[in-house]
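Write out this protein's structure.
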Amino acid sequence: MTAVIEKPSVRTEPRSRFTEVWRVVRLHALTPSVFFGIPWIILGTAWLVMIVIGMIAGAAGADTEKMGEGMRYSWAVLSPQWYLVVVGVQAIGLTMSFALGFGATRRDFWLGTSAMFGIVSLLNAVAIATLVQLEKLTDGWWLNIAMFDALWYGQNGWLVDFYTTLALQLFVLFIGASVTTVYLRWRMRGMLTLALGAIALILGFVAIATFTESWPAIFEWFGGIGIVGVFTVVLGLAVGCAIGGYLVIRRATPR
């Protein structure tokens, strides 16, 4: 009686780079609440607070037009951005080891994560830019409130609101992700070096600008490039973080 040992079948067909990257995107999409649910709960809660304030002010006979003007300086529309930094951290710190265990390379993981960041930022930018226009169309949801039509929003049209939101969301996501790659690569020593380096760079810039009396020229330059120019700089910083994170993650060790 002979025993027959069957060899396990091994996939030999090559898988495309797109397929590998898309697998990482799908892995991130298994927890949509992290990327979409919680940020919009935060934003929706801020919107409800504004609605309640508007209803109370209207019922009390307050000057809602002045109230709406004051609300334009509120940062409520940016409330999810701070959480998105945490999303960037979690996307790398909590998912990388799982992805590598399923055969993804570090390059595929970073490209897939970057693609997920792009999708999230794109959809959120479309939604927020559209809500700005709806708020203007309804005169502040018929209550004269300014939740989305605040800060720089609502002044230059849908396309500018879309672009600035896209740049800002990419920036905060990649800030969280790139800093996490530093921790995975060098642990606390790397984090301390990064923090001290950033502080030294900022203090050095402030010192140079102060001693050379360059602050008026700096503010004039930012005013000259306009809101689109400022957020183009922000987008450039996001790209820099994405490139830096890719270079670091190639030798990073997951927990």
